[in-house]
Amino acid sequence: MSQKCCTCPGEVNQNEKSGPVALFKTTKGEDVVVCYNCLKSLLSKTVDKPAKVTLLHDTPNEIYAHLNRRAVSQDRVKRGIAQAIARHHKVMNDTSIKKTNIFIHGPSGTGKTLISRVAAETLEIPFVEYSATELTPNGYEGDSFTSIFKALVMAAGGDVAKAQKGVVYLDEVDKFTKKYSAERSGLGVTVQAQLLKIIEGTTLNLSQKGTDGQNIMFDTTHVTFILSGACEGLLDGKDEARPVIGIASEEPTPHNKNRQVTTDDLIEYGFLRELIGRMSIVCGTEDLTKDDLIKVLLDVEGSPLDNQRKILAQDDIEIEFSDCFIEAVVTDAMERKTGARGLEVEIERRMEEVHFNPLLYRGKKIVIKADSSITVSEQQKSEKSKEEKRTLTCV
């Protein structure tokens, strides 16, 4: 039986052994045939090509706007991360595009990890945070680099292909420089050299069985890396007038001192020239001011205070934080130099009583004060806008 292919003018014989044909029925019940060559072409278009990835926020400025809702200050880092993540999106769709790795330096508790994690959330791809201090060179006791990618596969729900297009945030990389520890400089250089190879792209045997029962072979070529470290003393004795590398040039000020960084500064600090050369974007965070920390508590989505409200709501407790409470939390965090990360510690310390004995306050609205004292409020539930709360009145 010979019929015409429905997609090309040629005729096909269903009894021929030259290749398979596909027989379909139309909505009218008529039989149509697709020849072998057309079938092969259709399958290559629908099966071989990966599906395009659609971001929730698919341009750098949209990612940046999303970051502004979740983190305060650090404009330079937000812009850098937004560009790196947007580029990662393009790499996911076309692996011939070169990925953009990023290096972030700055004090602890200034938002480096949060900004990176939130940006990765906009991609809905696997993201893993790892401390470089846990890594040792191959053959030494401690974690090897394969531990990072095992964690990335887990973050991808076991999907190795998805994990191979994930994002790795590697913190405390400055711990492997001679500036940080002369005693560990030899070991640090070895770790940096291995990291360089992984960033450039290599295949690792994870010594972990995949769904096919074989060891997982992990290709790092298309993984985007965010390297981070406090890099204390990075610019000690440096001339602030030196040129800037990164996203945008800004006039140096005493408060923004750690933004003025060159590749030579990082190499002198103890990073391998080749490793820094793989970082397309270099930028730094600043110490958060008192106003910044207040905004962290009052303005950002998912703030530590919002988290406390959600926890207590499950015990049917409504809580109001007094202005004096907020002032005390921020002041203590600044004195301890723990940044935004230290806010939760200060809050938990002052709220131990209500968390330990929630039954005492169930069904009530309470006000917590700076000295951790708790007052049961007689007021009805009310909403206070964030704008109203920005100016604290502590008496």
Structural features, described:
By secondary structure, the protein is of the alpha/beta class. It folds into three domains: 2-48; 60-284, P-loop containing nucleotide triphosphate hydrolases (Rossmann fold); 290-389, Helicase, Ruva Protein, domain 3 (Orthogonal Bundle), CATH 1.10.8.60. It is 37% helix and 15% strand. It has helices at residues 36-48, 60-70, 75-93, 112-121, 146-155, 160-163, 185-200, 263-269, 273-277, 290-298, 304-313, 323-335, 341-350, 352-356, 386-389, and strands spanning 2-4, 11-13, 22-25, 31-34, 102-105, 127-131, 167-171, 203-209, 215-219, 224-229, 281-284, 318-321, 365-368, 374-376. Strand 3 and strand 4 (31-34) form a beta hairpin. Helix 12 (323-335) packs across helix 13. The relative contact order is 0.10.
How would you briefly describe this protein structure?
This protein is of the alpha/beta class.
Task: List the topology elements.
Layout lengths: L1 E3 L6 E3 L8 E4 L5 E4 L1 H13 L11 H11 L4 H19 L8 E4 L6 H10 L5 E5 L14 H10 L4 H4 L3 E5 L13 H16 L2 E7 L5 E5 L4 E6 L33 H7 L3 H5 L3 E4 L5 H9 L5 H10 L4 E4 L1 H13 L5 H10 L1 H5 L8 E4 L5 E3 L9 H4 L6
Parallel strand pairs: 5-10, 5-11, 6-7, 7-10, 12-13
Antiparallel strand pairs: 1-2, 3-4, 8-9, 13-14
Helix pairs in contact: 2-3, 2-4, 3-4, 10-12, 12-13
Annotation field: number of helices: 15
Give me the CATH architecture of the largest domain, please.
Answer: 3-Layer(aba) Sandwich
The CATH class designation of the largest domain is: Alpha Beta
The largest β sheet comes out as: 5 strands, parallel
What does the average pLDDT come to? 80
Percent of residues in helical segments? 25-40%
Strand order of the largest sheet: 6-7-10-5-11
- Extended strand count: 14
Could you say which structural class the secondary elements and strand pairing correspond to?
Answer: alpha/beta
